[in-house]
């Protein structure tokens, strides 16, 4: 009998414990069911579960530590992304700089190549001149016109000295076309150009001009130099052996190779230059 009673008491004690545990589990389940997905509800649940183990101060410290950890990790991630982006931009910028340098080099080489070709073309015209201002006539003999002009200038030219002569350009223009003359020898052309200074003293040659046979590029450059002369920004411009020259208002002489060489004379300014100094020294033209 006594042994039986003890077993009943033990069974009753186990039931009592199970009932107490079930009651606690029910309360916990009710708390979990009432928890919302928001951060505030999680905090409430955390306080209820850990209330017996952690103080409010401990919870605040844990929260601060978590916040700092998250903030540090986030900052490191952002900094890494920024560094990667900056590195990528810098690499792309470096490539752009290299490409720009290559483009500038190619431009410079291309310009030098164009100048070299122009120089060769001009050399092929070294024995030729253009005579402008001679009225046109039907059935005219351009060789005879050239000889007549040269004789008035005091230069003896014969048929054997002329390789070829003809009018240049399309007929029917408002002004007489130029006569293009190619001489057999360079010295004949040189004598004719040197004698141009006497043309002003010959009435019949007052409106006649003799110049080198220039390439298309140099013709345009010489035209712009003459525009400066017409605007009275320079005192004189002329050609010699395919090269273009001018003098400024102080009678200093300059050679013009490129259009940018003309820039200083378009906006005159006071400068001390020697007679052999190129206009490129003024404008920084290269």
UniProtKB/TrEMBL annotation:
Q: Where is this region: Disordered?
A: 1-25
Keywords noted in UniProt = Coiled coil
Q: Where is the composition biased (Basic residues)?
A: 1-14
Note the coiled coil stretches, chain numbering: 96-123
Renumbered to this chain, the Low complexity biased-composition regions fall at: 15-25
State the InterPro entries in the record.
Transposase_22
Q: What is this protein called?
A: Zinc finger DNA binding protein
The organism of origin for this protein: Tegillarca granosa
């Amino acid at each position: 009998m006594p042994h039986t009673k003890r077993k009943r008491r033990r069974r009753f004690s186990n039931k009592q414990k199970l009932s107490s545990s079930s009651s606690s589990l029910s309360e916990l389940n009710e708390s979990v069911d009432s928890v919302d997905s928001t951060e505030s509800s999680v905090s409430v649940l955390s306080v209820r579960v850990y209330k017996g183990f952690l103080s409010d101060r401990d919870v605040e410290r844990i929260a601060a530590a978590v916040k700092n950890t998250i903030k540090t990790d986030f900052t490191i991630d952002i900094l890494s992304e920024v560094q990667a982006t900056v590195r990528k931009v810098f690499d792309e910028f470096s490539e752009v700089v290299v490409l720009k340098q290559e483009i500038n080099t190619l431009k410079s080489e291309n310009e030098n190549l164009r100048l070299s070709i122009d120089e060769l073309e001009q050399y092929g015209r070294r024995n030729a001149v253009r005579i402008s201002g001679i009225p046109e006539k039907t059935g005219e003999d351009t060789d005879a016109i050239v000889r007549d002009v040269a004789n008035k200038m005091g230069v003896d030219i014969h048929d054997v000295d002329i390789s070829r002569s003809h009018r240049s350009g399309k007929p029917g223009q408002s002004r007489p076309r130029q006569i293009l003359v190619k001489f057999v020898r360079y010295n004949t052309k040189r004598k004719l150009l040197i004698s141009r200074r006497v043309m002003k003293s010959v009435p019949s040659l007052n409106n006649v001009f003799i110049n080198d046979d220039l390439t298309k590029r140099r013709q345009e450059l010489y035209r712009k130099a003459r525009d400066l002369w017409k605007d009275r920004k320079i005192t004189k411009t002329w050609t010699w052996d395919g090269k273009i020259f001018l003098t400024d208002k102080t009678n200093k002489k300059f050679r013009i190779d490129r259009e940018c060489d003309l820039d200083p004379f378009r906006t005159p300014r006071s400068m001390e230059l020697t007679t052999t100094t190129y206009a490129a020294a003024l404008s920084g033209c290269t």
